[in-house]
Amino acid sequence: MKTKKPEREALSVKAGGELDDRFQLAKPTRHILNKVFPDHWSFLLGEIALFSFIMLLLSGTFLALFFEPSMAHVVYDGSYVPLQGIEMSQAYKTALDLSFDVRGGLFVRQMHHWAALLFMASILVHMLRIFFTGAFRKPRETNWMIGILLFWLGFTEGFAGYSLPDDGLSGTGLRIAEGMMESIPFLGPWVSAALFDGAFPGEMIITRFYIVHVFILPLIMLGLIVLHVGLVFAQKHTQWPGPGKTEHNVVGFRMFPNYVMKQVGFSVMVFGVIALMAGLFQINPIWLFGPYEASVVSSGSQPDFYVMFMDGIIRIFPAWELRFSIGEFYFVLPAVFWPFLVGMGIFVMLPLLYPMIERRMNKDRGHHNLLQRPRDMPVRTGLGVMVSSFWVIGTLNGGNDVFAEKFDISLNAMTWFGRIGLVLIPVILYYLTYRICLGLQQHDREVLSHGVETGIMMRDPDGRFYEVHQPLAEPDEHGHTELEYNGWTVPKKMNRLGALKPARKGFFRPIEDEPSEDGKGRGEVAGDDQEEIESGSEPKK
Ligand code: HEM
Ligand code: HEM
């Protein structure tokens, strides 16, 4: 007769138990794995930023193994024939070696550059999503401010990065930066001399930017990103209004396995897209620009897109140079002072303080966990469109020489288009956006009072034509109507006859509303009916 074997514990469970005996990790791990997140495509934008940042860290570390940030003069003897025998800095030479002589070097350089562009683009769109949906309101003002800080750190990090190879384009960018620094009243020349270790370009700037680029800024950014995402965890994510969703709960899916699996898949997709772009599309071909010489600047020198705005407004700003003297002292306030210090000062401070400004104007002291539709906040939406269009026009001006050349327009005319456009277009777009928002609200009200248009035309006995309107469904048990004025529209899809389809049921259906454990904060409602996750065992008594 067979004797029953004692059940063997899976190795992972055993290992988990051993770990937990020592470090008591089960409880916090279970808490994290069971955390509920709401689901919406726009919540992926922050994740694209996160994954491209990871890609920047990985590819940057590879580049740092081969790149030498030295301005020592050497003669190029690598495999790119047109530059052989030409004197250049060690930095430019090693960047060329990375492109032509290090195995996989060009691919990783291009991955690093494409990841930087994707990183900055995703932060911008992420920021717009936060702004237009009111996700920055109390209690998330601090996270908004950390975000703005991250944007400007990314901006500086990118600028320092594309200055490193010391090619013709990066030197031109540094020259503009020197001009901007010199416009700081009183201190300008000293700041510039301290940074460049004497007169521009000096022998130190690449070495200094290197320390900033690979050590100081990545460290600060990493710390702030951990804090940023930590705050999203601690304060819980916002959610769109809808059936079962209130200011006091979170309806969504658990971290494990749903979110973990999605995150892994999504990160691989982001890495894949960056690698594909690096493999297929050329970016920053430094060998075509040649080594930097202070006396050589070509037209068509554009910085990366996120810096073009600053370049653009400096290009078109009128040459208002102020000269005045106090006693024996004679001062010059160069034209760059206005767009750089005043303009950029406003552009940094206004967004940074926007949550507080809006709160003051609205006298809104409440906690907000439900997002808002842009149409329901016409002034905010208008302001957002206004500032975004100002930024886009400024950015286009950063390439005004290219437009002038390609379309055979005089550069003077381009400058005036830019100046007038920068002042007029944002104001016009504010007004249009405001009116469109009001129009959409009006439409919502009509749907509320008359129901949804079905497209079915009828004729009554006296010959009058009218359209059949489908009344909205009864409010659900939480009192939410399908389409709420000042709330989120959740129109159910209609079939061809105009009848309302039932909401999707099953695995993806959010389950019931639950109060939080202490009855105060936001409770979490998982939509995936997952069982409790065992991670290791409870501490042995
Ligand atoms: C947010 C983070 C970062 C951004 C936005 C960024 C951006 C850039 C950009 C645009 C370039 C010019 C690439 C080119 O030549 O086409 C660059 C170069 C470089 N980066 Fe980064 N980077 C970041 C983080 C890092 C990190 C963490 C490291 C190292 C640990 C690093 C190391 C380098 C090196 C060595 C170069 C010069 C190599 C070369 O240009 O060929 N970067 N970076
Ligand atoms: C390095 C750049 C950044 C990274 C890696 C990052 C990452 C994230 C992630 C992963 C989330 C949660 C998912 C989501 O809602 O998208 C998030 C949320 C958030 N981010 Fe960012 N973010 C960055 C920059 C910014 C910027 C520039 C702002 C705004 C100025 C911002 C403001 C916020 C706010 C307020 C939330 C909470 C949103 C909510 O609960 O609905 N972030 N961020």
What are the key terms here?
single chain; 541 residues; mainly alpha; Cytochrome Bc1 Complex, Chain C; three-stranded mixed β-sheet; two-stranded antiparallel ribbon; 55% helix; globular; disordered C terminus; binds protoporphyrin IX containing FE
Q: Determine the structural class based on helices, strands and strand pairing.
A: mainly alpha
Radius of gyration: 29 Å
CATH homologous superfamily grouping of the domain at 51-236 and 253-288: Cytochrome Bc1 Complex, Chain C
Q: Helical amount among residues, as a percent range?
A: 40-55%
CATH class of the domain at 51-236 and 253-288: Mainly Alpha
Percent range for β-strand residues: 5-15%
Largest sheet: 3 strands, mixed
| Count of helix runs | 16
Mean pLDDT over the residues: 86
Order of helices and strands: HHEHEEHHHHHHEHHHEEHHHHEEE
Global geometry: globular
Q: Using the coordinates shown, work out and report the CATH topology of the domain at 51-236 and 253-288.
A: Cytochrome Bc1 Complex, Chain C
Please list the strands of the largest sheet in the order they lie side by side. 1-4-9
Unreliable runs, pLDDT <50, ≥5 residues?
484-519, 528-541
CATH arch. level architecture of the domain at 51-236 and 253-288: Up-down Bundle
Bound molecules: protoporphyrin IX containing FE
Protein name: Cytochrome bc1 complex cytochrome b subunit
Transmembrane segments: 43-67, 111-132, 144-164, 210-234, 264-283, 329-356, 377-396, 416-434
Enzyme class: translocase
Region (Disordered): 505-541
Q: How would you describe this structure to a colleague?
A:
- This protein is mainly alpha-helical and 541 residues long.
- The chain has a domain at 51-236 and 253-288: Cytochrome Bc1 Complex, Chain C (Up-down Bundle), CATH 1.20.810.
- It has helices at residues 11-23, 26-33, 45-66, 90-100, 105-132, 141-163, 168-182, 188-196, 205-235, 255-280, 286-289, 305-316, 337-362, 378-397, 400-406, 411-450; strands at 36-37, 73-75, 87-89, 249-254, 322-326, 329-333, 452-459, 465-470, 523-526.
- A three-stranded mixed sheet has the order 1-4-9. Strands 2-3 form a two-stranded antiparallel ribbon.
- The radius of gyration is 29 Å and the shape is globular.
- Bound molecules: protoporphyrin IX containing FE (2 copies).
- The site of one protoporphyrin IX containing FE has 26 residues, from α3, α5, α6 and α9.
